[in-house]
What we know:
The chain has 441 residues and is α/β, with parallel strands linked by helices. Helices cover 46% and strands 15% of the residues. The strands form 2 sheets. Strands 5, 6, 7, 8, 9, 10, 11, 12 and 13 form a 9-stranded mixed beta sheet that branches. Strands 2-3-1-4 form a 4-stranded antiparallel beta sheet, covered by helices on one side. It starts with a helix and ends with a strand.
Amino acid sequence: MSVDPVRDAAIEVLLRVSEKNAFLSDALDKTLRRKSLGDRGNRFLTQLVYGTVRHQRLADHILGRLLQQPIIELPRPIHLILRMGVFQALFCNQVTFPAMVHTSVDLAKKRGHPGTARLTNAVLKRVPQRIDEVPLPPPENVARYLGVRFSLPDWLVQQWIELFGEEQTAALCAASNNQAPTTIRANTLKIGTDDLRARLEQSKCILDKTTSIPEELTVVEGPALRSKLFQQGLFMLQDPASMLAAHLLEPKPGDWVLDMCAAPGGKTTHTAQLADDKAVIVASDLQPSRLVQVAENIERLELRSISMLCADGAQPCYRKKFNAILLDAPCTGLGTLRRHPDLKWRAKADDAKRLAQQQRGLLRAAAQLCENGGRIVYSVCTLTREETLDMRSFAESLDGFTFEDGAPWLNEWKINPGTYRTNPASGSMDGFFLMRLRKSS
C-alpha cells in the first residue's frame, strides 16, 4: 500500500511529540535529517506538523462533534491523522479536500486497520472547509471562545484578559497563532545591515526591514539560512524582540559583562558585537550541553571577547564584580508561541509562579554581582504577570537600584520607566518583557 511519504513522516513526528514528550522542533529536526523528502517536501512537512499542533484544540473541538465515541478512545495515530486532516481542510490552501480525505484514509490503513480507515473516511468527509462554518462556543464566554478558536488553554487566555483586556487579548490570541517570520541579525563586526541585505538578495532571497532595530532583517522568501553567508558568520537567526536586550544593556569596550543564562548565545554574541568585541564577557549557563551551542555561535561569528563558564547563576562564584549583567532568565516562554506552539500544551497554570521564584533568586544574585554604578538588564520571552510586572515590583525592593531608560529609540516599546514590552499583536516580534536597573555609586 502506497502512502504519501511527507504525511507519513508528519505522523511520525507528531507521535514522537505526543507519546514521547519530545519538543516539536527537536522531533521535526530528527525526521528531516533521516528522510530525503526534498526542499518542497521538507517545507510541507514543517507546515503540517506545526499547523496540526498549533490548531489542535480547534481540531479536537470539530472532531468531538463528528465522532460517536470520545476522542480519548481513539488510537493515537488515528487521532493525529484526523487532527492533521482538519488542519489541511481549514488552513492548507494548496491541498484539495478530496486529496486530504484520500491521503488520510491511506494513512489510517497503514497506521490502523480497515475499520479505522472507514472511520477516518466518514469523519473527514464531514469536516468544515471554512472557519466560518465551524460551530464555536458562545462569544459571551470570552476565554473559552478565544481558547477554542485560536487553540489556547482557557487559563492562559483568562490570564491575558486580566492583563491586557478582552480586545487586546483577542488580537494577541490571533497573533500567537500565526507562523512567525524568519528574522536575522546582521553581524555588523563583519558587514553592514544594508550590505548584508544586498548580498542575500543576490542569492535570490527577498528581505524586508520591519523594525527600527539597526541589525534586523526579515526574510520574506529564499534560502537565507542555507546561504554560505550564514556559515561565514555574517548573520545570526534571532527574533527582533530578543535583539532589544543587548541594546538595553548598552555594553561598551572595556566593560566586564556577565550573561548569567547565556545559552544558546544569541544575546551573548549580540552583546559582544555592540561592544565592538572589546568587552570582557563571561557567558555562564547551568547546563554544559547548552554551552556547546554558545561555543558554536561564538566560533561561527568569529568573536574573541567571550569566555564560557558552567555555573549556577543563583549561586554567585565570582570574586570580580561586573559593570553590566544580562539576566535573560528561564521563563515559561509563552511570548514565543508563534515559533513554539507545543509550549502552550506543555505549560501549566502554576508554571509562572514557580519560575518567578527562580527569577527572583537570579535577580538577587545579579544585584550582588553588580558593581556600584553598574547596570542590570532583566529579560524574559513571556507575558505572564508573575514573570513581568510582578518582577518589576520585586525589583523595586532591591536596595540601591533604580530603573533607568535605555536609548530614546527604544521608547516604541516602553511601558514604564526603564521597562519595555513587545507584543506579537502589535508587530512582527515575539512577546518579551525587559527592564534595566542602575546601581547607585
